[in-house]
């Protein structure tokens, strides 16, 4: 079956055509990143994001279909991000997808964006074993999910303030480096000494597993006031490298602690920040020590993309064949990423 996926939850407009069945493959991907439009503001401007989606979505859809060599009449399914995300951005993708569904009588599967990030490594590694733990670490989310099966699971921990990618973006903005900050910190990492500055990791007063990142941001800004922060200085590079190193160690440490407390057979780390070279290396080392299989999406499926939406859309269509995927306001639009499973601890 050929599936067309649409993603527009934030600042990437993406359309993909995938083939599911005996010979799974991503056939075409068309993506328009809005980094340039948002860079002058150091962060996403929702109004600009929504308008840009409107301008490009039709062209990207035609482009993806053309690239795939598939005629729209050969499609069997549409999948679209239903949330979470910026409401104006989501509306563009959802409305466009509903239009296609009506015009071409195609079933339309609404897909949870965070669950799709967890699906991303399955695109290239189909046999990932359950139960699994998934860390979704991006600009909008830093959450740990425990999943017993594809659509059965629960949220174990989430950030109580900023997301990991968001603090990187804010620090980069503060130092005038540009947007998005994550890739910039990634490329500057090798220029600094990561052990030069220490950051204390936060403890939740209630002893919970949740994350918190705002303390890292305040500590970095405090240090910056005391140091020579002219771009290119040793202090500047050491601070950025130490900051990234501290965030990565915190993410690895907390995630590994949770894998020890649950009957986990696989670990997935996905979302935009999972593109980070240091994070990929450190998770690789930690999992090798524990002999725990680690699955990271291919770099292009870490950040927002439509292949993961099409992929999970097809899984959902197969798993829940009785939902009405033509009822565009009906039960196919349930918001929960998973059916809630029972607690293990
Ligand atoms: O998954 P994504 O595209 O969008 C959300 O769902 O939020 O993630 C975007 C985030 C941004 O905060 C960006 O700075 C971060 O992912 N990011 C990175 C890297 N590439 C993107 N962070 C660290 N290192 C990278 N190489
Ligand atoms: Zn995302």
Summarize the structure in words.
There is one protein chain. Helix 5 (164-174) packs across helix 6 and helix 8 (234-261) runs parallel beside helix 9 (277-290). This protein has helices at 35-38, 46-68, 87-104, 113-119, 164-174, 181-188, 214-226, 234-261, 277-290, 307-319, and strands at 2-7, 12-19, 25-33, 75-83, 108-112, 132-137, 142-149, 152-158, 266-270, 294-295, 339-340. The two termini are 40 Å apart. The strands form 2 sheets. A 6-stranded mixed beta sheet has the order 10-9-6-7-8-11, with helices on both faces. The protein has a 5-stranded mixed beta sheet with strand order 3-2-1-4-5, sandwiched between helices. Helix content is 40%, strand content 19%. It folds into 2 domains: 2-119 and 302-340, ATPase, nucleotide binding domain (Nucleotidyltransferase, domain 5, 2-Layer Sandwich), CATH 3.30.420.40; 130-296, Nucleotidyltransferase, domain 5 (2-Layer Sandwich), CATH 3.30.420.40. It is of the alpha/beta class. The chain contains 10 helices and 11 strands. Bound molecules: 5'-O-[(R)-(carboxyoxy)(hydroxy)phosphoryl]adenosine and zinc ion. Zinc ion is lined by residues 113, 117, 138, 271, 304.
